[in-house]
Amino acid sequence: MADDRDILGKADALLRRHVPPRAAAEPGDVPVLTELITPGAPPAAPPPHDGGPLPADTSASREAFTRDLVAEVVSAVQGRLAQDLERRLTQQVTAEVQAAVAATLGDLRQDIANAVGDAVAEAIARRPHR
Length: 130
Hints:
Layout: H1 2-18, H2 33-36, H3 58-126
């Protein structure tokens, strides 16, 4: 779980670097997740009670909800990062393999040309002179 907090903290810091802080919420604005949930902060006060029965343990249900939400976000981020990393590695490795194959083929062509030249020279040397 410590790694999850570290990943989320790094993601949050990255978001904060690239998004200017919002001065005040305007009517119709929807808050982003980082504005709603601060890691390590106590949960916000529950919404006003509508008259129905209260859950027996609201603190435990909030913690479970937060834990599930964090796990879902971490899973989604890891999945996206894994796909992006795989795509980038595939592109990089493909380019490097193609360059290595091209260089190897160039070397092999020269080796084949040398071998054929040597074989022709030996064959001519073994033939009797006319």
